[in-house]
């Protein structure tokens, strides 16, 4: 029986590449997106054209009722869950902390942190041995920003990813006995659209000379690390982080 994977925020960038690679490795793909239906449908079409199977489900993961709908739709389609990738995340314009509104900070944490908590809670009830599941694997998409703090840019985003790091460590210990592994990747300086959301679309190229490998990274490289962590090759790996930031 094919395994089922749910990837949040997967209509583009790292999430989309992870969805494509997961399908190529034999997963049924449940692709979550928030607003870009056209992009999400395009990823699913590629999956189906390659002989795979998948479904795109719209949901704002910062809202519990929409997360419930996401999971119930997935249940009806596939009837199981084996892997979760908490990839969905948002970034706002670069500014210092004193310029940030309370609404902005709240929005960042509701999506980047609360959304991952909501999805993970529901995933555990489907995968944990004590709930009748067969185990599984969770990969959280953090960021190198959790280490650097992103001063003068987006401390709120960096802090939300720091919370994801702590979440990864604690959860990996909490549910290890339930047959579920929990790990994370920390991408940095990756060519994705998220930099445009921060008002600096060319950010990776501007910082390229400060990266030890002297180049930016690509979503496919992050996707490869995610799928390795989900795989049986990483069967004894939990509570770990893979840095994907060119040595920075």
From TrEMBL:
Superkingdom of this protein's organism: Bacteria
Keywords for this protein: Oxidoreductase
PANTHER family, alphabetized: NADPH-DEPENDENT ALDEHYDE REDUCTASE-LIKE PROTEIN, CHLOROPLASTIC-RELATED, RE15974P
InterPro entries listed in its UniProt record: NAD(P)-bd_dom_sf (IPR036291), Sc_DH/Rdtase_CS (IPR020904), SDR_fam (IPR002347)
The keyword Oxidoreductase is annotated on this UniProt entry: yes
Pfam families given in the database record: adh_short_C2 (PF13561)
Entry's family note: Belongs to the short-chain dehydrogenases/reductases (SDR) family.
Record keyword Zinc present: no
Name under which the protein is recorded: SDR family oxidoreductase
Organism field: Chryseosolibacter indicus
PROSITE patterns for the chain: ADH_SHORT
């Amino acid at each position: 029986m094919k395994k089922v994977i749910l990837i949040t925020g997967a209509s583009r960038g790292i999430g989309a590449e992870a969805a494509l690679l997961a399908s190529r490795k034999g997963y049924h793909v449940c692709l979550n997106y928030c607003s870009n239906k056209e992009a999400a449908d395009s990823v699913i079409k590629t999956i189906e054209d390659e002989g795979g199977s998948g479904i795109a489900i719209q949901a704002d993961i910062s809202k519990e009722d929409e997360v419930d709908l996401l999971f119930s739709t997935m249940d009806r389609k596939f009837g199981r869950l084996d892997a979760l990738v908490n990839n969905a995340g948002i970034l706002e314009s670069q500014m210092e902390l004193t310029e940030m509104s309370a609404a902005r900070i709240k929005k960042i944490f509701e999506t980047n942190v609360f959304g991952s908590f909501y999805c993970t809670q529901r995933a555990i009830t489907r995968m944990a041995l004590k709930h009748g599941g067969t185990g599984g694997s969770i990969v959280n998409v953090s960021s190198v920003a959790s280490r650097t703090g992103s001063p003068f840019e987006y401390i709120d985003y960096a802090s939300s990813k720091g919370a994801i790091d702590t979440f990864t460590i604690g959860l990996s210990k909490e549910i290890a006995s339930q047959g579920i592994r929990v790990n994370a990747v920390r991408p940095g300086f990756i060519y994705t659209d998220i930099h445009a959301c921060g008002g600096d679309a060319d950010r990776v190229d501007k910082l390229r000379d400060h990266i030890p490998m002297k180049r930016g990274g690509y979503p496919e490289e992050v996707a490869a690390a995610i799928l390795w962590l989900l795989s049986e090759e990483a069967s004894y790996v939990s509570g770990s982080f893979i840095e994907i930031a060119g040595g920075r």
